[in-house]
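Data card: per-record layout.
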Amino acid sequence: MIQDDFSQTLRLGFCILAAGLALYLADVFYFAPRRIPPCVQESLPPGHICPQELLRTWKKNYAGGQSYKIVWVDARSESDYELHHLMMDEDRAFPIRPGVDMQQLMDAAIERLIDADNRGECIVVFCTESCSSSEEIAQAIRDTGLVKAPVYVLEGGWPALLQTGIVPD
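The structure for this 169-residue chain is written out next.
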């Protein structure tokens, strides 16, 4: 009888261990790669901004609710942009990406980017989580010398933007 109780306890222990291992592996291989690490504003290079800091700093409250004083620049590839992009008024979001048509896209948006400062807005450039296009586009906007509004690169890119709730997934 004691041996039966021991073997049952041992089997139960192995089942619990196997379930725990399965949950751990699911976290490591499925959930962790999709989890965006916490962003610490103080550790970022100049010109970069955490999503939380962006929303806290550039929130605009009005009688009907809240919105954000942000002009978005999408620096992702054309295929990523066509797949899913910001659905906002046409003067709130612009696709500008490196490449052959970069100057044409920049010319189409430049008046609105210049006007952002007069409206008390900032400009936020984003791409995918690990691309460098956003840095290149942000610098190109700054280098025009015409845009006086703050220009930021969004840390975490499109995935971080999705997590803010501004953009429906």
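Known properties of this structure: The chain has a mean pLDDT of 84. The longest strand covers residues 70-74.

See the next section for split statistics.
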